[in-house]
Amino acid sequence: xxxxxxxxxxxxxxxxxxxxxxxxxxxxxxxxxxxxxxxxxxxxxxxxxxxxxxxxxxxxxxxxxxxxxxxxxxxxxxxxxxxxxxxxxxxxxxxxxxxxxxxxxxxxxxxxxxxxxxxxxxxxxxxxxxxxxxxxxxxxxxxxxxxxxxxxxxxxxxxxxxxxxxxxxxxxxxxxxxxxxxxxxxxxxxxxxxxxxxxxxxxxxxxxxxxxxxxxxxxxxxxxxxxxxxxxxxxxxxxxxxxxxxxxxxxxxxxxxxxxxxxxxxxxxxxxxxxxxxxxxxxxxxxxxxxxxxxxxxxxxxxxxxxxxxxxxxxxxxxxxxxxxxxxxxxxxxxxxx
Length: 338
Ligand code: NAD
Description:
Strand order of the largest sheet: 3-2-1-4-5-6-11
Radius of gyration: 20 Å
CATH architecture: 3-Layer(aba) Sandwich
Strand content: 15-25%
CATH class: Alpha Beta
Keywords: Lyase, NAD
EC number: 4.2.1.46
Distance between the termini: 44 Å
Number of helices: 10
CATH topology: Rossmann fold
Family: Belongs to the NAD(P)-dependent epimerase/dehydratase family. dTDP-glucose dehydratase subfamily.
Bound molecules: nicotinamide-adenine-dinucleotide
Structural class: alpha/beta
Number of strands: 13
Number of domains: 1
CATH superfamily: NAD(P)-binding Rossmann-like Domain
Cofactor: NAD(+)
Largest sheet: 7 strands, parallel
């Protein structure tokens, strides 16, 4: 069976971790990685597989339909796993347009190209298109914010609060409609905050580590009490692989690590670990923690109920925050100090 699949956004944080994991586990697949290499993507994230014969990198834009159509004709993909997105909430506040363009229109372009290739073409695949899966990677931020209790389930109504989450919510809806309208074999996963190796330096955990090691102030929004449900990126990758292969068409699956921690705890924990893993000559890294003006519309708490993917697909997270963060710090220290 031809198992050529398209992965978009594979030079970014989660996509790169996923491709390396997926190729190691699935030597019978051929993966084409389509990425625009925006500021957020780098081929340095993929050095482990650059000579893998089952892997090909293509630079291109998911907003360019003609280019996508040509790519589908050339490779005749039998599946898509779609990571490419503008992903940083702060950037969506200062410049929302790119988020609508890439996350909404880009996702639509990709879906429509896949639909035409798999379903509309006067072709061979129509009868067998169920084998052709479109897997959309999304976020728990589409559900808005939680109070002090409760968890996001797949039934939680969408209530996005930032331009980023609104753009992801919109793309989720377009993906959903392609199942209900066209019967396309789609699946969506909504995951909580990821952390681990290869994350862009703009995000919270890499920022804390980098600022600590360089002796700068470690900025924490507001009072640091905002809670996220942290998911180690390789646990996310195993969840995606399961949902891609075994998830039911038209369904959504929440992926979360059951690791709710507030931002101040995260900063303190990282400083505490750095104090032993990379000691300062004097004092603790905790002395560098500084509170800064809160992000507008900052959601208080996200927490995921992962029952569905655990019970239906047998997924479970291997890492809790305290084990995953040690691996993460080790990776960044090696990068920052070499
Ligand atoms: P990232 O910003 O690290 O990577 C995004 C990648 O997409 C980059 O390599 C970038 O070059 C590429 N890209 C951007 N615009 C493109 C375009 N027009 N055409 C082709 N490629 C383009 O993001 P990430 O953290 O790896 O997130 C991946 C996906 O997971 C996103 O869809 C994001 O919404 C979702 N997600 C991320 C998290 C998280 O904690 N990081 C949590 C939930 C969901």
